[in-house]
Design brief:
- The chain is of the alpha+beta class.
- The chain has 2 domains: 60 residues; 319 residues, YVTN repeat-like/Quinoprotein amine dehydrogenase (Methylamine Dehydrogenase, Chain H, 7 Propeller), CATH 2.130.10.10.
- The protein contains 3 helices and 28 strands.
- Strands 1-5-4-3-2 form a 5-stranded antiparallel β-sheet. A 4-stranded antiparallel β-sheet has the order 6-7-8-9, with no helix packed on it.
- Helix 1 packs antiparallel against helix 3.
- It is globular, with a radius of gyration of 29 Å.
Length: 403
């Protein structure tokens, strides 16, 4: 009698656990992050020296690479506008909101976020982010409020400098070598950080408007600035600039515009540049050239891709893979593979790693459900055995024995 009662209790407990576990698994399965093999509408890209890079596709943050992409859960109501990653820690992500003047920091790959308001008095959004890992500084460019400097102290972020500008900030770049080198670019002007970003000065000796910006953590640091009609310039101190156009086709009398610029974060001497020729004086005509690659810090260039019809708007390098880069153009934000970049990944790899806690919780729920199902089956079998009369035992009153 006692054994039968225990079996019934065990069945009730197992059935309850089984129901809860299956429900949890179903909920997690329906709310798990979205994955896709390739990006479609890239507005911002952060190549990192890690296995995972980050991209903003249609206002949504994704993590992944040439093997596939998984959505990273952003704070509710936020349209992603800019992203940057700690070069020494892939789990530390900085996300700029396109629909508010606020920066969000996550130290656990996007599972939780810390909100850092930039201004409560102005309306706008974040356009660019750069991280100086050595000095624990984060530079945030905006479309209406200029440039902010924040110090990451671990548990919080402290504002320590603000540069008011009349133009939107288009690019921000910072070195992580300890010397405090940082630059910001608007449509017409380049700015250099001094005193570790507490002060900024206008760079007036480029001889042309800046069109692209990048910093390579070489020794010494190399700053690259694309221009509207002088091609590419580079500097090791941010004060004196030299032409870096050998092999790009800039000849006397021509006007070479840099349309896009990118550096492989794992190979800082590998640089990609997209260029166009400009013609005319009162009415400019742009004639795209294509994309070139340098493996020696822009001392020489080799053609990677030629396209005379469409100008490149941005370049997305594959970290550590020389000659592999994707391009988005003025007519399409869907990345196009160039050089050795994979054409189309066949499947989404490492989804469990990219999807984060949702996938892990889902697996745990189904594992618990399996154990509960085994326990329930065991209890049912035991209950049936307890009800079956043993050999030679008299039947209960009113029962009939077959045979």
């Amino acid at each position: 009698m006692l054994n039968a009662r225990m079996n019934r209790i065990l069945m009730i407990v197992a059935a309850t656990v089984l129901t809860i576990a299956v429900f949890a698994g179903a909920v997690n399965g329906s709310t798990s992050v979205a994955t896709k093999p390739s990006l479609e509408n890239v507005r911002e890209f952060a190549a990192t020296p890690h296995n995972i890079s980050y991209a903003i596709d249609g206002g949504v943050l994704y993590a992944g690479g040439s093997y596939g992409w998984a959505e990273v859960s952003a704070p509710e109501g936020i349209i992603a506008g800019a992203v940057a990653v700690d070069p020494h820690n892939a789990e530390t992500i900085y996300l700029g909101a396109a629909n508010e003047l606020a920066l969000y920091r996550s130290t656990d790959s996007g599972r939780t976020w810390l909100r850092v308001p930039l201004s409560d008095q102005l309306v706008g959004g974040v356009t660019a982010i750069a991280v100086d890992r050595a000095q624990r500084l984060v530079y945030v460019g905006t479309d209406t409020a200029g440039l902010f400097r924040l110090r990451d102290v671990g548990s919080s972020m402290i504002s320590g400098g603000h540069l008011r500008l009349d133009e939107p900030v288009l690019d921000v770049a910072a070195a992580s070598t300890g010397d405090g080198m940082a630059f910001a670019r608007t449509r017409t002007q380049l700015y250099r950080a001094e005193n570790f970003g507490l002060n900024w000065v206008a760079v007036d000796n480029l001889g042309s408007a800046p069109t692209a910006l990048a910093i390579a953590d070489t020794s010494p640091v190399t700053v690259y600035v694309g221009t509207s009609d002088r091609g590419l310039l580079k500097s090791s101190d941010g004060r004196s600039w030299a032409l870096a156009n050998e092999g790009l086709g800039l000849v006397p009398g021509s006007r070479l515009q840099v349309d896009a610029l990118a550096i492989d974060p794992l190979q800082p001497d590998v640089v990609y540049v997209a260029t166009s020729y400009l013609y005319g004086s009162t009415e400019l005509h742009q004639s795209p050239v294509g994309v070139a690659m340098s493996t020696d810090g822009a001392q020489s260039w080799a053609t990677l891709h030629t396209d005379r019809n469409v100008a490149v708007a941005d370049l997305l390098p594959v970290s550590g893979r020389t000659g592999a880069v994707y391009a988005v153009t003025n007519v399409s934000r869907t990345p196009q593979p160039l050089g050795d970049a994979p054409v189309a990944p066949a499947f989404v790899a490492d989804v469990g790693e990219l999807a984060g806690p949702a996938a892990t919780t889902n697996l745990v729920a189904w594992f618990v459900a399996s154990l509960a199902a085994l326990a329930l089956a065991y209890a049912v079998v035991n209950d049936l055995r307890s009800r079956r009369p043993a050999a030679g035992q008299p039947l209960a009153k009113g029962s009939v024995r077959n045979g």
